[in-house]
Amino acid sequence: MFLLVGSNACLVRRAGTGQIADPSVISETELDSVHAGSALEAVRQLRPMFLVSRGKLSLDPRVPPALPNVYVDNQFYGDATVLRNISAESIESIKFFNPAEAQLKFGTGNPAGVIGIFTKH
After folding, report:
1. 52: left (phi > 0), else alpha (psi -120 to 50), else beta?
2. What span, in angstroms and rounded, lies between the C-alpha atoms of 77 and 103?
3. pLDDT, tens digit (0-9, with 9 covering 90-100), for 91-104
4. What percent of the chain has pLDDT over 70?
5. How many C-beta neighbours within 10 Å does residue 36 have?
6. φ, ψ (nearest 5 deg) of residue 46
7. Strand partners, 95
8. What is the CATH number for 86?
């Protein structure tokens, strides 16, 4: 019973449909509903938890906390700061890959996970 309740707490309802959406994915419909100019604006409005730092990965105080890397159509694009350079109008969907999923799909070097941008073709 506890697991069922806990898993339902993370679910996201699609605006106006009552359908339960995958909390790790932002759909094209959701993107269109917020009228964001950039991917960063869209993520901040729809899934701000994608941008949460995963903590420090080094004991060196000069090393900043880790942010997710960004991949556009499965190609490395940069860290989360590059989201401001991606037009929301060009995006079909955005998916957050946790660190384990990111390692399986994209390899090592993504300790804070990956924000995957999939563009319209």
Report:
1. beta
2. 16
3. 999 999 999 999 99
4. 82
5. 19
6. -95, -40
7. 25, 116
8. 2.170.130.10
List all residues 6 or more positions away from 38 whose beta carbon is below 8 Å from its beta carbon. 83, 84, 85, 86, 87, 88
The answer to whether the CB of 88 falls within 8 A of the CB of 80 is: no
Q: Is the distance from CB of 69 to CB of 112 less than 8 angstroms? A: yes
Rounded CA-CA distance 41/6 in Å is 28
Say how far apart CA 29 and CA 35 lie, in whole Å: 10
Which of 36-40, 45-49, 62-66 is predicted least confidently?
62-66
pTM of the model: 0.79
Is residue 42 within 8 Å of 35, Cβ to Cβ?
no
Q: Which domain holds residue 111?
A: 24-56+65-119
Domain count, the chain: 1
Q: What is the CA radius of gyration of the chain?
A: 15
Query: Each residue of 31-46: pLDDT tens digit?
Result: 999 999 999 999 999 9
Q: DSSP class of residue 52?
A: S
